[in-house]
Amino acid sequence: MKSIPRRTVLRGLLGGAAISLPLPRLAGMLNGNGTAYADGRPLRPRYLTWFFGNGAYPEHWIPSEIGVDDAWMPSPALASLAEFKPWLTVLSGHNVPVQGVGAVHKWVAAAMLTGATAGGGANVGDVLLPSLDQLIAPVNNADTAFPRGVHVGISNVTGAGALDFNVSFNGPNAPNPPIYSPTALFTSLLALSGTLDPDPSLLRRKKILDAVREDAKELRVRLGSADKQRIDLHLEGLDQLQAQINASLEGADCGVPVDPDVAYPDRGEDGVITRARCQAFADLIAYAFSCELTRVATHVFSCSACHAPYEEAGLGPGTFHEDYGHLSHPMGEEYARQGFNTGVEYTMGCFAELLKRFRDTPDGADSNLLDNSAIYVTSCVGHPEYHSRRNAPALIVGKAGGAFRGNIHHAMGDENASKIPFTVVRAFDPGATSFGADEGLVTEAIPEILA
């Protein structure tokens, strides 16, 4: 097996335009120990914020046991994540000490993302400090095609002015809004050379893989057997995704209006909460991370205080925030509580789609994308009825290249919740000395969850 450059791409022509197709991190790009690239550059882990609105009942969310490895088991809310337990870090007992003006959904979310209260008035979706993803991006992502990261969203239903639809902020008045179209992200990822026509109809006229097939054939001769399998899986996954997009675009040439944003044929319209939409973005984020087109991303399942319905979860057309979170359902309070728990379980099931793809995506010599990523999961309140600042959902999933031990439920007592995102930041930037401001300011990480 010969060493190959980490920026190796497959090249070809599509519709007369030159294209380049990025490749995943292959063993042939690494040094003999698989600990760095062959040119000596360090391997960098990936980071993702995964956010969902309206919190969770602590008794449903928090595991009953505390400890590591076999000493604890996932709670009912986290049951769909059980197969990812070796990579799972559950935090509980923490408290958000900051307070702010207006909706608690606004400034608890801001605190969990930035370590400080929110800015502006009650209906202004703004923050005072950058979010943790934008603290990580300059040190981990500056050399990628998306220096500020890739930012996607599932639900585009209002959060009553909490933080609008954003969870990524460069600072005050500078959000990085999520996009809601998987097809738009797909074409963007394939247009990095700037020469590929972004018109999705091109993808239907000639397959991307046909264009780079000869280059891929020549590259395989230079690869070891494991890398040959990795590149075949990579191209097979891309081929499947394109087939789904092609199906969604079928008939456009006949004058039938087809929404080009429908990446999976039956996923529903952009902005609607469905598992298929989560699957589409999971495919794309795993692809972008694997190819290091970006090492930073955010995923907004539902925004802070989101009023969207969770119909696919069986909860009907009512607003999840009001009918279930505020117990306003006409079937009564107990029905609403049970429905809220059902919604949280459904949400984590959708999150599991991303984890499946990360776990099943090889990354380097003997690891996968979940080994080499850290995914910070949080929300905008703790207890949904009481709008509690205590026990806002907080998970870290993945080991960030060996930074996190995984397989732990750590109870923090009444410690400052800012320690959680600060620990994540420190995993990517060991030189970071503090996180947050005022009551949310912290200078210490959480050593118990580190490897």
What would you say this structure looks like, in words?
This protein is of the alpha/beta class and 451 residues long. The chain folds into 2 domains: 1-43 and 201-259, no CATH class; 45-184 and 273-449, Alkaline Phosphatase, subunit A, CATH 3.40.720. The protein has 11 helices and 12 strands. It has an 8-stranded mixed β-sheet, with helices on both faces. Strands 1-2 form a two-stranded antiparallel sheet. Strand 1 (9-14) and strand 2 form a beta hairpin. The protein is globular. The relative contact order is 0.21. Mean pLDDT is 84; it is low at 247-263.
**What number of structural domains do the residues give?**
2
Identify the CATH architecture of the largest domain: 3-Layer(aba) Sandwich
How many H/I helices?
Answer: 11
- Spatial ordering of strands, largest sheet: 4-12-5-11-10-3-9-8
Using the coordinates shown, work out and report the CATH topology of the largest domain: Alkaline Phosphatase, subunit A
Keywords:
451 residues; alpha/beta; 8-stranded mixed β-sheet; two-stranded antiparallel sheet; 12 strands; globular
Summarize the structure.
This protein is of the alpha/beta class. Helix content is 30%, strand content 12%.
List the helices and strands and how they pair.
Layout: E1 9-14, E2 17-22, E3 46-51, H1 58-61, E4 67-68, E5 88-92, H2 104-114, E6 118-119, E7 126-127, H3 132-140, E8 150-153, H4 182-189, H5 201-205, H6 208-220, H7 225-249, H8 275-290, E9 296-300, H9 320-325, H10 333-359, E10 373-378, E11 394-397, E12 408-411, H11 419-428
Helix pairs in contact: 3-11, 4-8, 8-10
